[in-house]
Amino acid sequence: MMAHMDRAITSLEVSADLIAEFEREWIEAWNAHDIDRILSHYRDDVRFVSPLAVRAGARHGAVRGRRALRDYFERGLASYPALHFQPIAALGGIRSIALHYRSVADRPPVEVMELDARGQVRRATAHYTATPNRDAP
User: Rg of the Cα trace of the chain?
Assistant: First the structure.
């Protein structure tokens, strides 16, 4: 079990420590291409929504459940064997974390992850489309 899941989120706002720990663990898991570590951040009944999932055939861009998410993420890791994320920013909200990072082809996506009381992602939404004529940081 990942450290972020060992403690309960007792307030509405996510603490700065939890944000930093979650970001570090999440990025490290992806950069290690360790599917089990990646998936440890997500609940069994997770809902993941992404414009890339639409291109992969997911209805309405939604991947439902950790088992389906495993398949989706494994295809992504196989398609991008040199995948490496670089953190840009991590922001906390009401039981949520937004991670901004540099990804494949130097894209700067933002993923907003709603957390349950155990710190696992119950819903995640990925954002990839940048505003035209504006450079990302």
Answer: 14
Long-range contacts of 13-18 (CB under 8 A, 24+ apart): 13/92, 13/93, 13/94, 13/95, 14/92, 14/93, 14/95, 14/96, 14/97, 14/115, 15/92, 16/92, 18/92, 18/97, 18/119
Beta bridge partners of residue 91, listed in sequence order: 98
Cα–Cα nearest to 51, from 136, 110, 134, 115? 110
- In order of their start, the domains of the chain are 11-127 (3.10.450.50)
Structure tokens at 69: 């998410």
Q: In what order do the strands lie in the sheet with 96-102?
A: 62-64, 42-49, 121-127, 110-115, 96-102, 86-92
Query: Beta partners for 89?
Result: 100
Q: Which two tokens stand for residue 44?
A: 């069994």
Reading the block at residue 29, the tokens are 């898991």
Summarised one tens digit per residue, pLDDT across range 28-86 is: 999 999 999 999 999 999 999 998 887 777 778 889 999 999 999 999 999 999 999 99
